[in-house]
Amino acid sequence: MKIIKATGLLLFVFGFIVFNISFFQASYTLTPELVKEKISEPAKTALFLQKAESILNQNIPSNFAFVAKVKAAFYSANDQQIKQYSITTAEVNLLVSLHREKFSIATVDSVFSSKDAISVFKNQALKTYGSWLDGQPFDTQEELKAQILGVAEKIQKYGIVNHVGFDRYQIKDLTYALTKSAAHSPVKRKPGLYLFLSFGLCILGALLYILPKLEDPSGIKNNGIFFNVMKNVGWLGMLTGTWLIVFYILLYFFPEYMTNWIIMTDPISHWLNGNEASRFFLYGLMYTLCILVMGIRMLIHYRHSRYQMLRTCSVMFFQTAFAFLLPEILIRLNKPYFDFKNIWPLDYSFFFDSRLDQLTESGALGIFMIGWGIALILLAVPIMVYFFGKRWYCSWVCGCGGLAETLGDPYRQLSDKSVKAWKVERWMIHGVLVFAVVMTTGVLYTYFTKSSWFLFFDSYQLREIYGAFIGAGFAGVVGTGFYPMMGNRVWCRFGCPLAAYLGIVQRFKSRFRITTNGGQCISCGNCSTYCEMGIDVRWYAQRGQNIVRSSCVGCGVCSAVCPRGVLNLEVKNETGRFGNPVLIGNNHVKLVD
Amino acid sequence: MPDKLVVFSYSTLVAMQHIVIIGNGVSGTTAARHIRKRSNHRITVVSSETTHFYSRTALMYIFMGHMQYENTKPYEDSFWKKNKIELVSDHVEKVDAPGSSLQLRSGSTIAYDILIIASGSTSNKFGWPGEDTKGVQGLYGYPDLQLMETNTKGIQHAVIVGGGLIGIEMAEMLYSRNISVTLLAREPEFWSNVLPLQDANLISRHIRSHNIDLRLETELTEIRADETGKVNAVVTNKGEIINCQFVGLTTGVSPNIAFLRDSGIETNRGILVNEYLQTNIPNVYALGDCVERTYDLPGRRNIEQVWYTGRMMGEVVAQTICGEKTKYEPGPWFNSAKFFDIEYQTYGNVGKDLAPDEEDFYWEDQSGLKAIHFVWNRNSNEFVGINAFGIRLRHACFDQWLREKKDIQFVVDHLDDANFNPEFFPRYETEVGTAIATKFGAV
Ligand SMILES: Cc1cc2nc3c(=O)[nH]c(=O)nc-3n(C[C@H](O)[C@H](O)[C@H](O)COP(=O)(O)OP(=O)(O)OC[C@H]3O[C@@H](n4cnc5c(N)ncnc54)[C@H](O)[C@@H]3O)c2cc1C
Ligand code: SF4
């Protein structure tokens, strides 16, 4: 058994090293054909080719160098366009000189009358960006000049890169696309082999490492957790956390560097949905595999508890079927991507115009999807929470919860149990909920009115901020990257707006509670220690009080680790749910409260 | 987790007094908390083991790496100040009862209006040859745990003497660190001085399934040391010599009262108290492990060294001191423990032997990991008690049924209501009901 375990560890480490090495393993050759294929507009293609000339058909041996050069080419293209297409001071002066007291936009035609591309662009741009100036009176020439210069500056900043150059989204997407297709690497030649050597060996190794646990007697086996360098913020835990943080930052903000990893999963993506893999395909695949493999660990770990086993099977199922496979199949069938178990506001982009448009254009199925999504928010959440508690979602269905309960399980003891942390938690999570609601209201306002300005903010800007800071930064980088430092539910506890919503319902209108068993508590602290949500369960148990907390995700681990059988997750009549603290034992003692 | 208790009712507010408590274990702490809830008295807790209250019952989990010391503290460190409970980290050398003051090891004295002694227990030793050898120790407090950490570094084999609750905890602790264990017990089955034989046998089998070398009806006669003075073997009454590098002495505990010698406070095996937990000196009370009751309570021993007793006594004494004189009258007996992976709960009185007018029924699951043992009165059919292994039962149900003197049939019929196992766990009620009906007809 020891040998099997050691072999497993070895295979896993080997697979992991292969995976990491493959990150650096490609070299890159950019060809004109590739550029033409990826940049569809001929004018821009030509511009880019001219700027990227020095790297064309060259072999560049590292992703960092390649990405830097491609980006430099884009920037230099933009610089050139800005130089050529900017409205000059002389032109502004000329324009100003044509006016007395009142501005008229029509005069633009007389200044920019030639038919060459630059003149046409300037003409158009001034009319678009300066339309508000039309008919405006002015007192002095200086005043008018300042206003026109302002318009010219806007054009320089946005108009030129948007229309004749490359805006930042385009640069991002194109850099990624070019890097991925320009790569030639052992991974690209044999993606299947590398997939096996990294993913395959990691999975095999992990399973070999986990399976021998079946030899131990079943029961709570938390032995050595606090001596473990992985599980008690030791060097290995810190290293793992750092790796995860870097991974998430690459994934969300710099995917162009991780193209080799994405290429590795191309064969699976082709097989599933017919397209090449995207970064989120890679992520989804890794995510699902983590839940499955660590889910098996969970099943073995808790094989004495049917509650834990069913719950684990449930998250494994929902991740694999609903979050991973079904959306891919929908894409294969030319239907919109849809995760039927994701609920707004966790799914914060549900009401984004792009998604609503896509769904409304997809016929009956699309309309059904919109209806389904709204029904989840308005009906499923309150009804299911009323009958089962928020656990029906958070620890049985949700993807974030699924990862936390499987990959994150070894870190549950790291959550902060202090009263202070509880205070911070309440402010933060409800703050994010408010943020999500305001952002979405703005988005819907924009959707229906076509005006991006809502109350005091620009709804496009706000959704971008939400996406970067909450969607990617909090949920991903912090939420998962900090597993080994702050426990496995950082996001669910401090950030998830859906958890906040579910929690409000659970706190005020639900049949769910954790019952304390009479006077049996010995204040040992196992329950609080292993509460991933940082609830000081013992505080309630030792005073004989039921636990009714909005944050409780009902994972049931407090009940499982309690050595005295004190805690039980129950759904019962609402009356008496909160209960007075009663510690059974004494006659004639009234507990004051 | 409201972190403040503050609620003291001014109606019961008497003149502010200085209440000093010796011992910050569960007994002393419960008393302090409840006095604070009910009054504005000045409260000082003097204790020498640890600065803050921690859960003694969780000691094993620190050694096993399930928790750290910090996790075993039931209240945050800020709790005490918030609730105006002064903590003094010092050892009481002497109690001057006539002068109402305490002599501390640091040299200072503390004067009190009311003294509550909650000094707990100390591990028993029986004068075995070699019992003070290096590597031989008991397990009662945090210092013992730290010593055990040192004593077990790099060792291969340990012998534990005493088949009780602390003994099996120690076995599990060592097992978790891959140290092989021989467990010596005087009784024919593990803990059969408390449990009926079938129950004790179930536990014996379970212990052995963890590769613990359980030697029953075996007693320690001598502990041997090597030339460096470290333990290297024990000798048993059967003449066996067992090589080992560690010996755990877990043969029970006794009230910790040595420091009360010559204080004028009456003691026997423990501090003698009346129904109000008052000693012979009117302004001195005693609670918890260190107490010996001078009056009998049916179904209860006069010295009860369990967590719950200390807690309940703390609740009672707080009420008395805050002006509502209350007798210590615990309800039906209950207790719990865990033997490796088998949880144990008991309600009512299941003795190791049946009383002449008692009948019993033992049911064991095929796995050998679950069992229930019922005891009732043969003549009246009144339900007397239950032991459950690997099954969680609802305390509130059994407390009520015992108080209402329900008959055994009622209990068997309502086992469902008392099921406290997590959702989806296999049910056992029908099987148990059928088995008992098969044997007794309708009981
Ligand atoms: C390893 C272990 C496991 C246990 N498990 C269980 C269990 O599962 N269930 C159960 O019901 N019971 C269990 N018990 C028993 C239970 O812990 C005790 O009954 C309970 O802790 C007694 O509480 P107490 O407050 O009376 O005394 P203690 O907890 O002993 O507290 C007394 C404190 O007073 C201090 N003190 C004593 N004298 C002085 C002095 N002169 N000056 C200053 N300070 C002093 C001591 O150092 C000690 O810290 C266990 C005991 C042990 C040792
Ligand atoms: S784990 Fe159980 S016995 Fe320990 S503190 Fe929590 S409820 Fe009490």
Task: Summarize this entry quickly.
The complex is a heterodimer of chains A (593) and B (443). By secondary structure, chain A is mainly alpha-helical. Chain A is 62% helix and 4% strand.
Features:
heterodimer, A: mainly alpha, Alpha-Beta Plaits, 3 domains, 7 strands, 4% strand, B: 443 residues, alpha/beta, FAD/NAD(P)-binding domain, Enolase-like, domain 1, 10 helices, globular, binds flavin-adenine dinucleotide, binds iron/sulfur cluster
Can you offer a commentary on this structure?
The complex is a heterodimer of chains A (593) and B (443). Chain A is mainly α and 593 residues long. Chain A folds into three domains: 27-184, no CATH class; 216-509, no CATH class; 510-591, Alpha-Beta Plaits, CATH 3.30.70. Chain A is 62% helix and 4% strand. In chain A, α15 packs across α20 (399-406). The longest helix of chain A is centred in the C-terminal third of the chain and has 31 residues, at 419-449. Chain A starts with a helix and ends in a 22-residue tail after the last strand. The mean pLDDT of chain A is 94. Chain B is α/β, with parallel strands linked by helices and 443 residues long. Chain B is built from ten helices and 25 strands. A five-stranded parallel β-sheet of chain B has the order 3-2-1-7-19. Chains A and B meet through α16, α26, α27, α28 and β7 of A and α1, α7, β21 and α8 of B. Iron/sulfur cluster is lined by residues 521-527, 537-538, 541-542, 562, 564, 566-567 of chain A.
Furnish the topology, listing elements before pairings:
The complex is a heterodimer of chains A (593) and B (443).
Chain A: H1 2-24, E1 27-29, H2 32-38, H3 42-51, E2 59-60, H4 63-85, H5 89-97, H6 108-111, H7 117-129, H8 141-163, H9 168-182, E3 183-184, H10 186-189, H11 191-210, H12 235-253, H13 259-264, H14 266-273, H15 279-301, H16 306-332, H17 353-360, H18 363-388, H19 391-394, H20 399-406, H21 419-449, E4 453-454, E5 457-458, H22 459-481, H23 483-486, H24 490-495, H25 497-508, E6 512-516, H26 526-529, H27 537-541, H28 557-561, E7 567-571
Helix pairs in contact in A: 1-11, 3-4, 4-8, 4-9, 5-8, 11-15, 12-22, 15-16, 15-20, 16-20, 17-18, 18-25, 21-22, 21-25
Chain B: E1 18-22, H1 26-38, E2 42-47, H2 59-63, H3 78-82, E3 85-89, E4 92-96, E5 101-104, E6 109-111, E7 114-117, E8 121-123, E9 136-137, H4 142-151, E10 157-161, H5 165-176, E11 180-184, H6 197-208, E12 213-215, E13 220-225, E14 231-236, E15 241-243, E16 246-249, E17 253-255, E18 271-273, E19 284-286, E20 291-293, H7 307-321, E21 334-339, E22 342-348, E23 358-364, E24 371-377, E25 383-389, H8 395-403, H9 408-413, H10 429-440
Parallel strand pairs in B: 1-2, 1-7, 2-3, 7-19, 9-16, 10-11, 10-16, 11-12, 18-20
Antiparallel strand pairs in B: 4-5, 5-6, 8-17, 13-14, 14-15, 21-22, 22-25, 23-24, 24-25
Helix pairs in contact in B: 1-7
